[in-house]
Design the sequence.
């Protein structure tokens, strides 16, 4: 059985029908990516899965449980994490405190200490800046912090919304390397990205979204070769 | 560059500059004349300052409730003054029965602690109920809406107490252990009541500061005040955190109610929360609303300012019966801050974009 199974969800913003029947599955250990243009519904899909939005129709199951309508703060205890678009670091809290907030749902002191070490190993920059207020970090460092903070929840499924947004190419590489590393250590990844080429190069499978619907689904390698994807999202003619 | 400056300079700016200058001139002339007249001894000034600090620490405790709630919800809980009244009013009955039984005379420390415990619990529960009933259902509504229910909650609390206990004034008993006792230092005599209130209030504020800065729940409160959605993604139950914020604010207001009773026993009645509530709000704005140290400093500053201000500034201008102008003086400060420094002493520019 799949780790995450989304069955025909419809999500609305007021009267706006944002998701028009999305179905997708994520298997344990995979990297799955959602690609598509602005406004296709990628972020809405992640927000619906993470419990920030409630779908009007359809169901979501995670680790065998029906989680449709379960609020976001409860899903964290079921080891699901999301790094939101625009990172969302707590600007007035220090790096250390931001990471502590990541561990809010946990009580295992040793596990938390171990994860602190793990995050600092993955992102040594954060260790240097532990005492610094997060608002003073650069964009790349904030993305590292947001990712590290999500790791502190000890997730089995980690969702990332546009981790490359606004970052210099060198930093994009660093962030994607970290994502691959996190996946190797056993965390399943669901990645939303505008940078489709980068996303497809690390993913196992991909879904293509267009105006609230999935129009294409295949292995990442096959999607890269797909003519329509090449034209619309990879900038090739 | 100078030309650019003058191009942008409007008549409103001109008026504000003149107004600012006039305020400064009035203050300087007033102080100069008052000190020149030498009507008060330095001992009297010190007495006034200490009375102001004690009063100001009460404002500060109430102001913290406004500022904590504003920080997290960006709303002004206008029922907060009445939450303070509810604690003070409930504890007055216990205080009087303890005075009648002699417990207050034999065990003053325990008696006061019990009073604080009772008042803080009542105010805490009441504030949580107000949030649950009047604010939570309106989360996500336009910001004017909870403001109106806040005023409704304020009237409901006031007239519930009026209905229950009538409109008469109650008063706290005099605590024998503190009555007529002065701390004599460097030739100045400071009443024990003021010292007790000031020290207790500062201890409470220190505890709050530690709680917010160091504990897990305190950090969660700061996280929620920055970004509720991301806080939820950390597993923080936002509604519960907001409830805790109201509980803490209420408890501090209740404690302030007892301190007020120690410091100034008379005047406990259903409407007693109104003026201190608005003054504490002034203090919170003065310090920069949403800013915790700001509320503390703002409260103490306002207390001292309104204690010495009338004598120091107004008397020198030949205004009669200055002490009756205390409230007018405090609210003039509110108006001046709102005009010249709306972000308060510690407020950041950032909070304007937030608001």
Sequence:
């Amino acid at each position: 059985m799949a780790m995450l199974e989304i069955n025909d969800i419809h999500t609305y913003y007021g009267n706006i029908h944002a998701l028009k029947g999305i179905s997708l599955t994520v298997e344990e250990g995979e990297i799955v990516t959602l690609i598509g243009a602005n406004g296709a519904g990628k972020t809405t899909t992640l927000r619906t899965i993470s419990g920030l939005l409630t779908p009007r129709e359809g169901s979501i199951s995670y680790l065998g449980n029906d989680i449709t309508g379960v609020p976001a703060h409860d899903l964290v205890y079921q080891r699901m994490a999301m790094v939101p678009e625009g990172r969302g670091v707590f600007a007035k809290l220090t790096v250390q405190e931001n990471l502590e907030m990541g561990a809010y749902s946990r009580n295992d002191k040793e596990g938390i200490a171990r994860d602190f070490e793990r995050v600092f190993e993955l992102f040594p920059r954060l260790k240097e800046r532990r005492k610094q207020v997060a608002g003073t970090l650069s964009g790349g460092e904030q993305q590292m912090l947001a990712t590290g903070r999500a790791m502190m929840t000890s997730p089995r499924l980690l969702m990332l919304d546009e981790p490359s947004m606004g970052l210099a190419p060198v930093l994009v590489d660093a962030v994607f390397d970290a994502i691959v590393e996190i996946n190797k250590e056993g965390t399943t990844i669901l990645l939303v990205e505008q940078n489709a080429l980068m996303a497809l190069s690390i993913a196992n499978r991909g879904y293509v979204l267009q105006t609230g619907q999935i129009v294409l689904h295949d292995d990442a390698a096959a999607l890269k070769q797909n003519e329509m994807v090449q034209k619309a999202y990879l900038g090739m003619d | 560059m100078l030309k650019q400056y003058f191009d942008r300079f409007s008549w409103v700016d001109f008026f504000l500059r003149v107004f600012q200058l006039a305020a400064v001139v009035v203050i300087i002339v007033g102080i100069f004349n008052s000190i020149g007249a030498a009507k008060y001894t330095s001992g009297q000034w010190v007495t006034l300052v200490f009375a102001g600090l004690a009063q100001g620490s009460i404002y500060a405790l109430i102001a913290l409730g406004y500022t904590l709630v504003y920080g997290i919800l960006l709303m002004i809980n206008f029922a907060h003054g009445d939450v303070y009244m509810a604690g003070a009013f409930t504890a007055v009955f216990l205080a009087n029965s303890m005075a009648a039984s002699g417990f207050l005379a034999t065990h003053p420390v325990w008696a006061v602690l019990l009073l604080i415990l009772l008042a803080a619990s009542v105010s805490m529960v009441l504030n949580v109920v107000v949030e649950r009933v009047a604010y939570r259902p309106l989360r996500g509504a336009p910001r004017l809406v909870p403001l109106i229910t806040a005023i409704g909650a304020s009237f409901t609390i006031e007239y519930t107490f009026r209905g229950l206990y009538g409109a008469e004034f109650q008063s706290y008993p005099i605590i024998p252990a503190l009555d007529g006792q002065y701390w004599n230092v460097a030739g100045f005599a400071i009443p024990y009541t003021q010292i007790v209130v000031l020290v207790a209030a500062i201890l409470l504020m220190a505890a709050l500061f530690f709680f917010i800065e160091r504990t897990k729940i305190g950090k969660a409160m700061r996280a929620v005040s920055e970004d509720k959605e991301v806080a939820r993604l950390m597993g923080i139950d936002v509604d519960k955190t907001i409830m805790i914020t109201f509980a803490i604010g209420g408890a501090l207001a209740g404690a302030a109610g007892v301190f007020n009773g120690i410091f100034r026993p008379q005047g406990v009645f259903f409407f007693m929360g109104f003026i201190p509530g608005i003054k504490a709000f002034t203090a919170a704005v003065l310090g920069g609303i949403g800013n915790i140290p700001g509320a503390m400093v703002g409260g103490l500053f306002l207390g001292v300012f309104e204690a010495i201000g009338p004598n120091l500034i107004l008397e020198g201008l030949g205004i009669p019966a200055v002490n009756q102008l205390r409230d007018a003086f405090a609210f003039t400060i509110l108006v001046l801050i709102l005009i010249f420094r709306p972000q308060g002493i510690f407020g950041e520019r950032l909070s304007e974009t937030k608001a």
In short: Chain A is about 35% helix and 25% strand. The mean pLDDT of chain A is 91.
